[in-house]
Amino acid sequence: MRTAIVTGAARGIGKEIARRLTRDFEHLVVVDLSPSLADTALELEASGAQVTPVEADLTTDAGIAAVVGATGTVAAVVNNAGITRDARLVNMDESDFRAVLEANLGAPHRLVNALEGRWADEATIVNISSRAYLGNFGQFNYSMSKGGVVGLTRALAIALAPGVRANAVAPGLTATDMVETIPEDVIDRMISSIPLGRMGTPSEIAEVVAWLSSPASSYVTGQVLVVGGGRSLT
Amino acid sequence: MHLHGQATSLERRPPIALGTVAVMHAHLDVPADLRAGFLAAGVVESDAGGPTVIGVPEAGSDWPTTLDALTTVFTTTKAAAIAGSPIVFVVSSDALLGRTGPTPAMAANGVVSAARTLAAELRKQGVPVNCVARSAATPVDAVVRWTLLLLGGGPDDPTGEVVQLGGAQIGKALS
């Protein structure tokens, strides 16, 4: 049975990635801090896949152990869980800096380390970075964490080759409930700088993740793919 | 250096004088050869303000140690940003490519991304924020020279850039 792990799967991009991967994997281990994960798992099971929800904090040893304990051999991992604590650097608290680094960078590093010896043949890792790894005003902590994810991906691609491939996806502005908290005029301004003229959808991110998790991308490793409607060019 | 008969901004703003204003914070985990090179060039080891050199750990370690080192980078960078001081981060080009293991790669790439963000935040003030990437074969004096050059930059000079020394990045992944 081919198992995929998806973190941050209760909602948004992570939920859509999990939904997409039910077409390619028999067993999904879906991980999130949110109690709404149980509802997501029920939705995913309707597709016919076996789904194991794990409500866990991946910044803790206990959370990592809970995920590993729910998993046998692993064919794919998607490190998607992440948080933001935005502020200009001059106003940023150390606690917010560390919280974002722990959740967005430390957690994927810990999880991949904990999965040593459990990789299936031709397994894949997809780490969700962000277009913010190219730099983004007001996100010193977040962009550091997402740049760090790119670095982690490159190192894993070298260290785990040839058995495991590791790649990163860097979404741009994507229509999730996180975006709903941004004022409409700000969203309009952001969209005006996207050549494709709109936000991305979670399913568009999920398709790229599914490709990188599949044999169709069998000669691709250590890469970061920006999925942002061309925003990285403008 | 003249382009089309006009003096470049680097000529208008010469590199900072060695041993006078550049600082390297004493508590940073700077690789020993770099620390020695900067001190030999007259950079002051001090927690005072001024154009600031920030070295990034290049050795592998566990995540908690890496997070602590990055937190020190954060506090040092924040202090320099509040003071409006130019900043140069010195990173390993091997680490940028992931060749020296996960935690050095996480630190180096993370710092480059954060430097780009800070460059955006300080751009209106004309404060440059850049990175110098060195390979194992790069002479320390080249790192020092480019670092001081970038620290002496002004509003029209490079910001948010990674200056790769030695050409080891050619044909490799862009950072």
Descriptive terms for the model:
heterodimer, A: 234 residues, alpha/beta, seven-stranded parallel β-sheet, 7 helices, 38% helix, B: 175 residues, six-stranded parallel β-sheet, two-stranded antiparallel ribbon, 6 helices, 41% helix, globular, disordered N terminus
Oligomer state of the chains in this structure: heterodimer
**Biggest chain-to-chain interface with counts:** A-B, 42 and 39 residues
Strand content of chain B: 15-25%
- What is the arithmetic mean of pLDDT of chain A? 96
- What composes the largest sheet of chain A? 7 strands, parallel
What general form of chain B does the structure show? Answer: globular
Topology pattern of chain B, helix = H, strand = E: EEHEHEEHEHHEHE
Strand order of the largest sheet of chain B: 4-3-5-6-7-8
Radius of gyration of chain B: 15 Å
Query: What is the spatial order of strands in the main beta sheet of chain A?
Result: 3-2-1-4-5-6-7
Question: Would you kindly provide a written description of the structure presented here, covering whatever features stand out?
Answer:
The complex is a heterodimer of chains A (234) and B (175). With 234 residues, chain A is α/β, with parallel strands linked by helices. Chain A is 38% helix and 19% strand. Chain A has a seven-stranded parallel sheet with strand order 3-2-1-4-5-6-7, sandwiched between helices. In chain A, helix 4 links the parallel strand 4 and strand 5 (119-128). Helices cover 41% and strands 15% of the residues of chain B. With 175 residues, chain B is an alpha/beta fold. Chain B has six helices and eight strands, in the order E-E-H-E-H-E-E-H-E-H-H-E-H-E. The A-B interface holds A 88-90, 92, 94, 97-98, 101-102, 105-106, 109-110, 132-141, 143-159, 222-223 and B 63, 67, 70-71, 74-75, 77-78, 81-82, 95-121, 160, 173.
